[in-house]
């Protein structure tokens, strides 16, 4: 059976880099330039340039596994530092993160889903699992991985490319954008472990349905 996957706020696909097997991935990214980079690395995926928050609401029932990584800057420790400096404009946390968690918990119980974000500067409003310097909310078991925990954003662009498993050679991308998209990547090893756990949960549920028949 082909697993239909919705990859929301896909970026360049750090979480998706090592995914394989009988899967069909639909990636939603609202930045056209970043979406084109995603297409370069994953030409067989369906790439959709739309607002991921609305796309989830409209299409969640069409997928077996949903991964969502809502924008994280307003939740990060760094934004807390900026909010305490007079020269920076103050920002509220973007509550789309919790909107999606609550929505999925109540209306996507028959789906397998995970929501990812950064370690926040405040105590999370809904308790997450912490893995590899990320918070995760899900309806299945999330693996705990600590690889490169302290060094995710350290080093120059080439070092970040190597760490995340991407090679931008031949692509016309400004260094500023390279830094942004590489800093936002979920390590492929963690993405693979999470997908494998999701597959196990899907298989378990399918067996339970067979037994109930």
Key features of this structure:
globular; 7 helices; single chain; seven-stranded mixed beta sheet; Rossmann fold; 7 strands; 213 residues; alpha/beta
Structural write-up:
This protein has one domain (3-212): Rossmann fold. The model has no long low-confidence stretch (mean pLDDT 91). With 213 residues, it is of the alpha/beta class. The longest helix has 25 residues, at 188-212. Helices cover 37% and strands 16% of the residues. The chain has a seven-stranded mixed β-sheet with strand order 3-2-1-4-5-7-6, with helices on both faces.
Task: Please give a quick description of this structure.
The chain has 213 residues and is of the alpha/beta class. The chain has helices at residues 32-41, 52-59, 77-83, 96-107, 157-164, 175-183, 188-212; strands spanning 3-8, 23-28, 46-48, 65-68, 112-118, 129-131, 134-138. Strand 6 (129-131) and strand 7 (134-138) form a beta hairpin.
């Amino acid at each position: 059976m082909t697993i239909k996957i919705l990859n929301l706020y896909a970026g360049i696909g750090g979480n998706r880099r090592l995914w394989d097997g009988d899967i069909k991935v639909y990636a939603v990214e609202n930045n056209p330039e970043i979406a084109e980079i995603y297409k370069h690395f994953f030409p067989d995926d369906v790439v959709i340039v739309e607002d991921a928050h609305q796309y989830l609401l409209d299409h969640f029932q069409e997928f077996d596994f949903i991964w969502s990584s809502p924008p994280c800057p307003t939740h990060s420790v760094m934004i807390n530092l900026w909010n305490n400096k007079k020269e920076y404009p103050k920002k509220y946390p973007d509550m789309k993160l919790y909107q999606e968690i609550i929505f999925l918990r109540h209306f996507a119980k028959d789906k397998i889903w995970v929501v990812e974000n950064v370690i926040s500067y405040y105590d999370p409003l809904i308790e997450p699992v912490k893995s590899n310097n990320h918070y995760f909310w899900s309806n299945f078991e999330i693996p705990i991985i600590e690889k490169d925990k302290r060094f995710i954003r350290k080093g120059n662009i080439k070092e970040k490319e190597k760490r995340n498993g991407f090679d931008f050679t031949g692509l016309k991308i400004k260094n500023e954008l390279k830094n942004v998209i590489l800093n936002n990547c979920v390590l492929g090893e963690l993405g693979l472990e999470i997908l494998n756990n999701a597959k196990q949960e899907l298989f378990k549920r399918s067996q339970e349905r067979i037994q109930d028949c």
